[in-house]
Specification:
- The chain has a single domain, classed as Aspartate Aminotransferase, domain 1, CATH 3.90.1150.
- A hairpin with a 3-residue loop joins strand 4 (93-98) and strand 5.
- With 126 residues, the chain is α+β, with helices and mostly antiparallel strands.
- The protein has three helices and five strands, in the order αβββαββα.
- Helix content is 33%, strand content 30%.
- The chain has helices at 4-16, 68-89, 115-121, and strands spanning 25-32, 36-43, 50-57, 93-98, 102-109.
- The longest helix is centred in the middle third of the chain and has 22 residues, at 68-89.
- The termini are close together.
Length: 126
């Protein structure tokens, strides 16, 4: 299970790595699973500005069965949406990348964010 302290440590490590070359972004994956990817991004043009990005896909219904499968899908969807709300409440900006359910959340920062941000970033176990 992912903890906020693991996310924070990975972010700290990412922030000490210089960009690979001029004009390019340095991207580090802090966490990734089937439905969420959490990244740090730094543009080499401004080494003091950092961004945390969350890319999230809403759960997909692979078949149209009813009963327990439908209920599990609804429960997962609720957890995904609550995660987005938690990110919004922590100050991340939300965006819809596609109608199929690809969402992003991001926040820019100069210094390492507070623990509350990393706690909000920990995705639910879906």
């Amino acid at each position: 299970m992912l903890t906020f302290s693991e996310l924070k440590q990975k972010c700290e490590k990412a922030m000490v790595r210089p960009p690979t070359s001029d004009g390019e972004e340095t991207v580090s994956v802090l966490f990734q699973n089937d439905w969420v990817r959490i990244l740090t991004v730094c543009d080499s043009d401004n080494l003091e500005k950092w961004r945390i990005e969350v890319e999230m896909s809403l759960p997909s219904k692979k078949n149209h069965q009813y009963g327990k499968d439908a209920m599990k899908f609804i429960q997962n969807l609720i957890q995904h949406l609550e995660y987005l709300i938690r990110l919004d409440n922590e100050g991340l900006s939300l965006d819809i990348m596609s109608r199929d359910g690809l969402w992003t959340a991001y926040i820019d920062f100069d210094d390492l964010p507070q623990d509350s941000l990393f706690k909000a970033l920990v995705p639910p176990n879906v």
